[in-house]
Each structure stands twice: as structure tokens, then as C-alpha cells.
Design a protein that fits this description.
By secondary structure, this protein is α+β, with helices and mostly antiparallel strands. The protein has a single domain, classed as Alpha-Beta Plaits (2-Layer Sandwich), CATH 3.30.70.100. The chain contains five helices and four strands, in the order βααββαααβ. A four-stranded antiparallel sheet has the order 2-3-1-4. The longest helix is centred in the first third of the chain and has 10 residues. About 10% of the residues are buried.
């Protein structure tokens, strides 16, 4: 398992942002997980998908993996509307093709959209005051 003992840098924005945290499970198959990692590398990720994510207003998206559990952090402007953006994202070129391809690796229903696959997590604690 690869770890990051010194943490991960976080980008600063000139405006306040909000964060969405979601989870999804991968199939318990080391070869599939290795391929999933590869498909999300800078060299392998589809440019149309990356452009679509930005086009709907997402500022940053991070995926973390532990075993078969994925954790996704999405940062957006404060006025971002999740449901509207996901509906728009689903209509962009190659998006459903990407979702169908990724479903090979994920424990999800065939034909599911990104919004149907990724489950929102409840924040139960934060350290900062406001």
C-alpha cells in the first residue's frame, strides 16, 4: 500500500469553496483495482471527461483508495448546485461511455450515472470553528 506520511497539498482559492465527500466500492479484484488506478492516471484519463468535470464548475476532484473503498473529495464554488451540475455532466460527450466503462471496476448497477454511483457521506466532525 502506498501512503503519504507528509500529507497532500491543497490548493488555495481566491474565493470561498465548499466540499463534497462521497464513497464508492470497487470489485474485490487486484487486477481490476490496478487497472482502475491506471485509468485514473494523468496519462490514461480521458481528456473529454476531465474537461467535462471542469465545464460543470468543479474546481478540484480527488480520489483516495483503501482496499476496495474509494473516497472522493470534490471542491466547488459556494454557489455550486450539485444536482444541476451532475445532470449536465451526464449529457456531455463520452460521459456515459466513461461511466459504463468504469462500472466494470465498480460495485454498481449497469448503466448508472456518476450521481447514482457515488454516495454522499455525512460529515460528523470538523475542527474549525465556523
Amino acid at each position: 500500500m502506498k501512503t503519504q506520511p507528509d500529507g497532500y497539498p491543497v490548493k488555495s482559492y481566491k474565493e470561498p469553496v465548499k466540499r463534497y465527500c462521497q464513497t464508492l466500492d470497487l470489485r474485490d479484484n487486484p487486477e481490476l483495482i490496478a487497472e482502475y488506478r491506471k485509468r485514473h492516471s494523468r496519462a490514461e484519463a480521458w481528456p473529454e471527461i476531465l474537461a467535462g468535470i471542469r465545464q460543470v464548475g468543479i474546481l478540484e476532484m480527488e480520489l483516495y483508495l483503501l482496499g476496495t473503498r474509494l473516497f472522493m473529495i470534490v471542491e466547488t464554488p459556494v454557489d455550486f448546485k450539485w444536482d444541476e451540475a451532475m445532470s449536465r455532466l451526464a449529457t456531455l460527450p463520452r460521459q456515459q461511455e466513461w461511466e459504463d466503462y468504469m462500472s466494470i471496476f465498480q460495485l454498481v448497477a449497469p448503466g448508472a450515472t456518476s450521481a447514482q454511483k457515488w454516495q454522499p457521506m455525512e460529515r460528523i466532525f470538523h475542527l474549525y470553528e465556523s
